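BUG-428 | component: ligand-complex export | severity: low

The export step for 4AD jobs runs without errors, but we want the raw record kept on the ticket for reference. Input record follows.
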Amino acid sequence: MVEIKQLGEHVGDSVTIKGWVEATRGHGKVAFTVVRDGTGVLQGVLVKSQVDASVWDLQQSLTQESLVTLTGEVKEDARAPGGYELGVTNVELLAAAAEYPIQPKEHGIDFLLDNRHLWLRSSLQRAGLRVRAEVEQAIHDFFYTRDFVRIDTPILTGAIGEHAGTLFETDYFGDSAYLAQTGQLYVEAACPAFRRVYCFGPTFRAEKSKTRRHLTEFWMVEPEVAFADSNDNMRLQEDFVSYIVERALERCGAELEVLERDTSLLEKVKPPFPRISYTDAVAVLKEKGSDVEWGQDLGAGDEALLMEDRDLPLFVHDYPKRAKAFYMKENPADPRTVLCDDLLAPEGYGEIIGGSQREDDLDRLQARIREESLPEAAYDWYLDLRRYGTFPHSGFGLGVERTVGWITGRHHIRELIPFPRLMNRLYP
Ligand code: 4AD
Ligand code: MG
């Protein structure tokens, strides 16, 4: 058995490949069978006069997604997808497929999502998910080569990580537990143990928004660095994002082509990225006709307006305190604001990173927890980090699906996670 990806080493040989039938055509003297084996796609060519009648008849009866083996000689053919063709001498049916719901035609998105377990097999979905896998590997490689220690943080938590409004609550032996919105508080605790750490895992938000960039379960990578300030944090972010984009360009060229991604803009993604303060951003937005008021967080519309005519990701930094989470460090130069940043991706993809320097002053942090009416007792362990050798530190969270959405140029991020969880979707 040979994998399609390895056919280049077998030109002129007779081989057998095993895979699922994507399509068949031809009825006269020559018939074609396109087979996918998970490593690639191959077209088998049958000439009626050269094979047994039973082989020909079997080929004619094959249904889409039946599992078969094809045996024949490997031929180089520049016009064939993948560059090779198989001169088929034998076909074997291993598992026949019933009538396959996904046909080579336009289907509605709800239908495709209902059939996500099958939709995964189609070429655009394969390409997008392969880019995702490469991005995830790039994330690990980036941090590994920079001496970060990976810390696995809990999914079941007792404290609110980000916002009370988007918590999934579950019964925990009579108490309440929340599905993690972030691993941040825990990687902060690991900083004094390892200096540079990161976590990478699923996070959960009961988002009631049905937008193209919200999932209720999404994957986030969150580095945390001792002795890094907000400026260091943004520099790490631009190096990190540039590295991920470069890896995708380097290793996923074929997938980006299938996705018809215009890669010229991605080629420009190199540090440094431009920066604008929140206060300046609000002035720019007002000039562009937005009715945003200083003090509000920026919505998707404002982000899009800000990114018009921009090719590179943009840092917006130092947001108003009341628009952001309790743990962000007060800006000594303007205490109405905090030392934080959002990184906005171009081409309409919006915020892909939220990051900040953390409040390392015990009293201020305690005051913020009270201001936000958070249950103090649940944060006692977190306050200990400020009681025992408090230290300046910063970190950020990058959303994997939003980042892969931008890199692949897909409109909706639900396609960039194998089994999306949305407000109205828990199936399949
Ligand atoms: O800005 P957020 O809420 O930041 C945090 O969670 C911090 N604790 C991170 C940190 O400093 N360690 O979320 C970070 C990123 C967003 O920029 C976005 O890319 C992604 O997570 N994100 C979502 N992605 C998909 N669906 C959602 N509902 C998302 N919410 C956030
Ligand atoms: Mg955010």
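Assignee comment: Attached the raw record above. The mean pLDDT is 97.
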